Amino acid sequence: MREIIYWILCAFLTVAIAIVSLRYVTNFWLLSFLYSFQVHFGVLFVAASLIILAVGRQIYGFVLLFVSVLLVAHGVIMLREFSEDGKSADRSPLFRLMSFNIAIDNWKNSTAITDMVVASNADVVNLLEAKPLTFHLQQLFKAYPYHIGCDNGKDSCDTLLLSKRPFVSRQVASMGSLRKDRMVISSVEFGGETINLVSAHLTKPYFDDFQMAELEDLAKTLGSINGPLVLAGDFNSSVIAPSIQSFLREQKLKTIVPEPATWPAGAGVLGIAIDHIFARAPLRLTSLKRLDDNFGSNHAGLIAEFVLDRNGQTLPAR
C-alpha cells in the first residue's frame, strides 16, 4: 500500500512539474500566467518531493526533488537578470515616480487614494483604472497642474498621468486590438534633461495571444524613442514570463531586484510582481518600493527614484 501511494504521488508531481516546465519548450498563452509563478511552484514541488521521500526513499523521488530545486534556482536567476547594479543608490534622485493600478471598481477608497497621491511628493504619478477618481480630478490637478487622460468623463478615465512639470511631448495610443488608449507616451524635463515616460497596461496573458500583440506594439514604440526612458505600469506578468523576458532583453530595460510583490496585494511578500517600473540607460533606478497601503485595490502601488548617468557622471538633483 505504501508503494502504491508513493507512485501515485510521484505521478501527480511529475505531471505538475511537466506543465510548469513547458516554458522551456513553448510559450503557450494558456499557461503563460503560470510561468510567472515558477519560483512559487518550485518551492511547492520541493515540499511535495520531500513528502514523497518520506513515504518511500526511492531514486525517482530524488529525481523529482532535484528537478524541483532546479526550477527554483533558475527562477531566481531569471528574476535577477534585469537587475540594476545599484552603484548610484547613494546619490540624490533626479525625480520620483509613482505607479498604481487603483482598480476600476474601487470607488469607496477614491478619497483616500487622492489624498495619498497629493501627499506623496512624487514628481510624476501614473494611475491605472483611474475611473474612481473622476470626482476628485480638480483636487489632483491642483497638486499636479499637468495631466494626460480623463478629459472626457468617467467612461474615458482609464490611464491618468499626472506631473508637476509641463510635458515636453504627449501622446495617447493603443496596443494590440483588445483595448484602446492603454499606452501613454510623454516626456518631461528634469535637471535640464528630457526624460521619456511610457505608461502601459497590458492584457492578462491568458486572454489568447492579445498580450503578445501588445508587447510587439510596445516594443515598436520604445524602439523609436531615443534618450533616457522610464516604462511603468501593470504588465499582468512577472519578469520571468518568457514573453516579458524577451521584451526586456530587446529593449535593454532594468529594474531593482528583488522587485516588490504587487499582486495579489493581500498576499504581501508571498505574491508576485506584475506591476513594474523599468528604466533604460543612461537612466537608473536607485529605489523601488511598494506603497504602504493598497487602499482596497488588488494591486499594490510602487514608488521609484531615478538618477541620470552621463559618461559616468550623475546629473545633479532637481
TrEMBL record:
InterPro entries for this protein: Endo/exonu/phosph_ase_sf (IPR036691), Endo/exonuclease/phosphatase (IPR005135)
Domain Endonuclease/exonuclease/phosphatase positions: 98-294
Keyword Nucleotidyltransferase applies: no
Molecular-function GO term, any one: endonuclease activity
Ranges annotated as spanning the membrane: 6-26, 33-53, 59-79
Keyword Membrane appears in the UniProt entry: yes
Keywords assigned by UniProt, alphabetized: Endonuclease, Hydrolase, Membrane, Nuclease, Transmembrane, Transmembrane helix
Gene3D superfamilies, A to Z: Endonuclease/exonuclease/phosphatase
Name under which the protein is recorded: Endonuclease
